[in-house]
Amino acid sequence: MKSGSRWVQIPSAIVTLVIGMILVLAGIWIGHNFNLLPVDASANAPIYDELFQVLFTIGTILFIGIVGLLVFSLIRFRRRPGQLGDGIAMEGNLPLEIFWTAVPAVVVLFVGLYSYDIYDRMGGMVPLAHDHMAMSGAASGEERIWGGISSGSIEDTATAAAALPIDVTAMQFAFLFHYPQGDIISGELHVPAGRPVTLRMEAKDVIHAFWVPEFRLKQDVIPGQPTQLSFTATRPGRYPIVCAELCGPYHGGMRSTVVVEESDAWEAWFSSNAKPETDVTPSVANA
Amino acid sequence: MTVATPSEPLISPPRLQPTGWLRYLSFSVDHKVIGLQYLVCGFLFYLVGGALAGAIRTELASPVSDFMARDVYNQVLTLHGTVMIFLWIVPVVNGAFGNYLIPFYVGARDMAFPRLNAVAFWLIPPAGLLLITSYFLTGAAQSGWTAYPPLSITTPATGQIIWILSVLLLGGSSIFGGINFIATILKLRRPGLKLMQLPMYCWAMLGTSILVVLSTPVLAGTLVLLSFDIVAHTGFFNPTLGGNVVVYQHLFWFYSHPAVYIMVLPAFGLVSEILPVHARKPLFGYVTMVYSIMAIVVLGLVVWAHHMFTSGTPPWMRLFFTIATAFIAVPTGIKFFNWLATLWGGRINLNSAMLFSCGFIVNFVLGGITGVALAQVPFDIHVHDTYFVVAHFHYIVFGGSVFVIFASIYHWYPKFTGRLLNEDLGRLHCALTFIGFNLCFGPQHWLGLNGMPRRVAEYDPQFTLINQISSVGALLMAISTLPFLWNVIHSAISGPVAGDNPWNALTPEWLTSSPPPVENWIGEAPLVEEPYGYGVPAEQLDLAATTGRDLWSSGK
Question: Which residue in B69, B200, B98, B79 sits closest to B140, CA to CA?
């Protein structure tokens, strides 16, 4: 490039290097210090936040770098009054073009592999349905599950076996939660902290989506195609359940609450609501 | 040798086409008339779509549903999406500028199929009116522009059927246009003009038209099946009759993801025309620009399922579409770096066309960064169907395509009318649009990350303040249209006369009079082998204050 003539003779390569380093440091600082996400309340939320921070940092560096370059060009190379001539007749620069093809390719590849790793840690790559449904002991053994996320229940089979199965029915304009183990039907989702939960979801009428922002999880609830979502809640509290797929006039009002409780409190809630004739000991294992 | 001086043909033969302003309301087969018909018609629909957006932002200024009925809100958001995509951006970036510019760029006197071209345009006004009147007659469709079944099957049928008819007409128009562009670019080139000498917009339109011809029929077929489900109670997508709703999503996005490139690739092409002229430099990296357009076309056809990461897709499919989607960033990145390199070292004229183009670069870079993030399955699972996605795609289609449309209007207005626009009003328009746009859509990223789903008329009250900021931004965007409208109308009547080539541009549309004669050139079409031959060689820099190579005046 062209080194500024008014500058003291610092080689442009060094200037570029220093600017690049400042940019990277600024990006990392911004990535660390600006939290744009709500509180994390599930086992995979911190993993998600890790990915978000990496993407946010890379994005900030790219955005500031490109916009900075653009603004610099507009100011430095603006046409001043009285200037009539053209700019430099520079039609291309093959090494430069190879460079800025290779760098984004490497960045994209890194981001892809990294997010694959994140997805794997969330349990997204676990083959769905069969083994899971068999272990959770739910009724519909041979039914095909079409998709979903099985997060937080892959570490060892003991916790997977202890997963709490809940049937979710979505309809215009409410979620209904059914606990097969205690035959409880509830409009609020009560889950114990620290124990894997597997939702088996089906819609009655149109497509809905089950979303808990604090869990960083979303899964469409589809009529005719059961889907599954597994998670482990970590932080006791009340969090919104939001329908995220346009489902009709009251779509915006289709909300519910997930109540995450310590296992004792949840146990108490469960036994006080369970049907008396069923076995009131869901506590296969409580961490 | 000047090109455009011999102005008086001896006898004007009797014309079959109306002349004067009436030709803009006629079934004209002149590509320039059709181009302007597309542009003005599209802009009128943009005002309609903008009013609908205003209604949405008014409703969202408060967390409860208080401005309009909930089903009306869903009709409004459906109409807003459909109008903006199918009646404003697609017809304008393709139909308007494509029809006006492509014949010039290939050195032809008109498009390959002029009558088909007129048919393609005249499908648009009835389709648009049909769509909008459906709101007043029966109630418009209310299942979003995506029309996912079973919602589109269970909501009132008449509005949905009219929506399908309208989109089918518009899709047909788009296909006719696409065929016409491919034929014109490949078969009507002036003898001696090689493909790799074409202005970049030709390549963009070639790529776009390939996408249109390959993917729009899929949408048409899908919507026909959907209409069967609605009126004939077939069960293609109806789960109660054994249909599969996810299949619809695959078919829909097989068109509708390429549709993003149908809206964006022509904008890339237009920017590639505007930047070199006002930066007085050659377009940097012509060959890599061409290859990156074609790479985007190919990749754009195999990424559709990234819209469906929460739809119960199997893990391998999620992985494949993540990788394919993220890799589109590479050819797109090449184009942006090339534009920055085009500006570097230029003599940049900071006029409205240039400023809107730079606004486009800023907005699109942000939209592209969030796009790469959204391609990552674990990231998308949290923000899918939220305001984060709303922000992302408005940064692409408004911050991207619409900014380029305005840049192009400022750039080519002297060619269209022979008069110059007022630059001060233009810069005011640009500043208001840029600030309003970023104020409207920037905060929506945060809304989506923190739990506000899209397409809602009511929301958690904790989001009230940010939504009100967003609505203020929308108001600014609405206001920004006023100086533009005044400028365009006033300058057409009494703007300063522009002359044939006010920008000293080298591309062939400037090598004729402004506005151009009916068959584009009096005499032979010029052969432009170097459409971006601006600039002085580096060793001569700062020596001469004259313009670079005076190729444009030699007619070369």
Answer: B79
* Average model confidence (pLDDT) across chain A: 82
Query: ipTM higher than 0.95?
Result: no
Report the gap between the CA of B5 and the closest CA in chain A (Å): 25
Place of tokens 């965007």: B477
- DSSP 3-state assignment of A217? strand
Confidence band, pLDDT 50/70/90 cuts, at residue B555? very low
Q: CB of A145 within 8 A of CB of A178? A: no
Rounded distance, CA B233 to CA B457, Å? 30
Task: At B99, give phi and psi (nearest 5°).
Answer: -65, -40
Chain A residues with CB inside 8 Å of B378's CB?
47-48, 51, 115, 118-119, 122, 124
Test mutation, A91, A119, A143, A214, chain B, max B CBs within 10 A: A91
Which chain A residues have a beta carbon less than 8 Å from that of B371?
none
Lowest mean pLDDT among A64-68, A143-147, B33-37, B58-62: A143-147
User: Could you give the percent of chain A with pLDDT greater than 70?
Assistant: 80
Residues B425-450 have a mean pLDDT of 96
Separation between Cα atoms, residue A260 and residue A258, nearest integer Å: 6
Region of poorest pLDDT, from A248-257, B466-475, B522-531: B522-531
For B:32-61, CB contacts with A below 8 A are none
> Cβ contact (<8 Å) for B312 and A227?
yes
**CA separation for the pair B97, B109 (Å, rounded):** 16
pLDDT of residue B538: 64
Q: A246-260, A268-282, B75-89: which range is least confident on average?
A: A268-282
CB distance B487 to B426 below 8 Å: yes
DSSP B333-394: HHHHHHHHHHHTT--B---HHHHHHHHHHHHHHHHHHHHHHHHSHHHHHHHTTBHHHHHHHH
Is A52 within 8 Å of B379 when comparing Cβ atoms?
A: yes
